[in-house]
């Protein structure tokens, strides 16, 4: 390397340029060796740490490690299970009536409020009765006149009959008077019919409710001239108590339904809201349709509901659950515990083992099963994704954990609300405090808002901006 021939080109006196280049080459070689040594050491450390990381990660996924996985459990119980058929239904009113006037006239009065509950025969509206009252009076006057003529004709007939018995008048005169009496009797009968018709027309000026139910929105206002031909009428009445739900059931369930009905059993029906979270009403199955729908292979059925609280409305969409059977004393587990026809059974040594099941019907949050499960045993309901066969578990109370989480969330919300309610001066003061002073300040504010004693709020006045050290000194 000290060979002068290795340095090419012109050189300075005494070979200084060639020596500088050789020094740079040595530095580069030493740096490369150092980098290789550092890389080798890093690789060796990573190689040794990999098994330790694998061992530490084992218990996380339910391996054979000693770390127990927190899980929630449910009990294996025997209980009666309902066999339910779910369907989508629509509520229908049993009767709907459009209240129309039976006579024409001006609407003079309304005796109802929209949405009221009314009884059959209750007065709803009043039509101007003056013309109908006049017609009634006229018919009644005609009747009274003809009744007077009839009474006079009868008296004359009686006199003629007495004279005839004395042989004082001819028989023809008696017969003529008798015919006149019968004529007046017919006239009086016709007059009476006219009076009855006029009275009926007069009564029609009082518009009453034909059925009991709930009123809809008013379709006519005061002063309008209404008549029987109006399409919308005055108002609509819908019967809501009881109310029916119409839905379809599969043809495969018809034999079981008919057997239960033939035995005199009442099939319970439940109505649920759209999200199937709130129970709306309970009723019983009523009538079955007389033909199966070929397009859907279902049969329409109708169920009746008392609707005592009036919360159900016609045309309302509901989810229907029809109970077609009841399984007595069957083995059940929580529905959340079943995963791909398997459950994790918690053993006495704190480990879990998988048990294969045959799943039956579901009722609420439980499902009937058939399998090797002892009654009263515990099965995992939460934390299934972290478990493997033989994994160690720690049973926790799901309700207690949920309450703790909710308490933490509530505390965070109260703290955030308190910070939002601070004045600009309080926020500036808070920004200059230490952590301990800040906590004392917030405790004082909380105590003041909760109506605590004045001594409880004393820490709040202690940390003033002047008492705290300046930022540069901290």
TrEMBL record:
GO annotation, cellular component aspect: efflux pump complex
Keyword list, A-Z: Cell inner membrane, Cell membrane, Membrane, Transmembrane, Transmembrane helix, Transport
Domain called Multidrug resistance protein MdtA-like alpha-helical hairpin: residue spans: 137-205
Membrane-crossing residue ranges in chain numbering: 24-44
Major location category of this protein: membrane
Disordered: annotated span: 445-474
Domain Multidrug resistance protein MdtA-like barrel-sandwich hybrid: 96-238
GO molecular function: efflux transmembrane transporter activity
Domain Multidrug resistance protein MdtA-like beta-barrel as annotated: residue spans: 242-325
Compartment annotation: Cell membrane
Keyword Cell membrane appears in the UniProt entry: yes
Signal peptide: none
Origin: domain of life: Bacteria
Family statement: Belongs to the membrane fusion protein (MFP) (TC 8.A.1) family.
Identification of the protein by name: MdtA/MuxA family multidrug efflux RND transporter periplasmic adaptor subunit
High-level lineage: Bacteria, Pseudomonadati, Pseudomonadota, Betaproteobacteria, Burkholderiales
């Amino acid at each position: 390397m000290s060979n002068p021939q290795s340095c090419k080109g012109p050189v300075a006196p005494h070979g200084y340029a060639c020596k500088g280049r050789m020094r740079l080459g040595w530095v580069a070689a030493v740096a490369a060796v150092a980098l290789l040594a550092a890389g080798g050491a890093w690789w060796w450390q990573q190689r040794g740490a990999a098994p330790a990381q694998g061992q530490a990660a084992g218990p996380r996924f339910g391996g054979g490690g000693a770390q127990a996985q927190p899980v929630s459990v449910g009990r294996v119980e025997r209980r009666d299970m309902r066999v339910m058929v779910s369907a989508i239904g629509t509520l229908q009113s049993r009767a709907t009536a459009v209240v129309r006037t039976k006579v024409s006239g001006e609407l003079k009065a309304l005796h109802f409020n929209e949405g009221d509950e009314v009884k059959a025969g209750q007065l709803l509206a009043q039509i101007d009765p003056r013309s109908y009252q006049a017609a009634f009076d006229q018919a009644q006057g005609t009747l009274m006149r003809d009744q007077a003529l009839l009474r006079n004709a009868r008296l004359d007939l009686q006199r003629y009959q007495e004279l005839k018995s004395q042989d004082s008048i001819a028989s023809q005169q008696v017969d003529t008077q008798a015919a006149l009496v019968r004529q007046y009797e017919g006239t009086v009968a016709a007059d009476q019919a006219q009076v009855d018709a006029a009275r009926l027309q007069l009564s029609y000026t009082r518009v009453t409710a034909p059925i009991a139910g709930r009123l809809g929105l008013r379709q006519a206002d005061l002063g309008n001239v209404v008549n029987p031909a109006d399409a919308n009428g005055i108002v609509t009445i819908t019967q809501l108590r009881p109310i029916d739900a119409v839905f379809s059931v599969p043809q495969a369930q018809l034999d079981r339904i008919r057997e239960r009905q033939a035995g005199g059993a009442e099939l319970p029906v439940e109505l649920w809201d759209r999200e199937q979270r709130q129970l709306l009403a309970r009723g019983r199955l009523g009538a079955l349709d007389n033909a199966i729908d070929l397009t859907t292979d279902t049969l329409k059925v109708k169920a009746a509901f008392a609707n005592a609280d009036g919360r159900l409305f016609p045309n309302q969409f509901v989810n229907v659950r029809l109970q077609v059977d009841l399984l007595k004393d069957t083995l059940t587990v929580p529905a959340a515990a079943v995963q791909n026809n398997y459950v994790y059974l918690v053993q006495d040594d704190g480990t879990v083992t998988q048990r294969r099941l045959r799943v039956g019907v579901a009722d609420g949050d439980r499902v009937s099963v058939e399998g090797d499960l002892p009654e009263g045993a515990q099965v995992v309901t939460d934390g299934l994704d972290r478990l493997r066969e033989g994994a160690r578990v720690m049973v926790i109370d799901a309700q207690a954990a949920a309450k703790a989480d909710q308490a933490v969330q509530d505390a965070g919300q109260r703290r955030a609300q308190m910070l939002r309610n601070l004045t600009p001066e309080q926020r500036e003061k808070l920004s200059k405090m230490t952590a301990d002073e800040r906590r004392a300040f917030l405790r004082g504010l909380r105590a003041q808002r909760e109506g605590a004693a004045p001594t409880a709020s004393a820490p709040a006045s202690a940390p003033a901006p002047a008492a705290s050290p300046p930022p540069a000194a901290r």
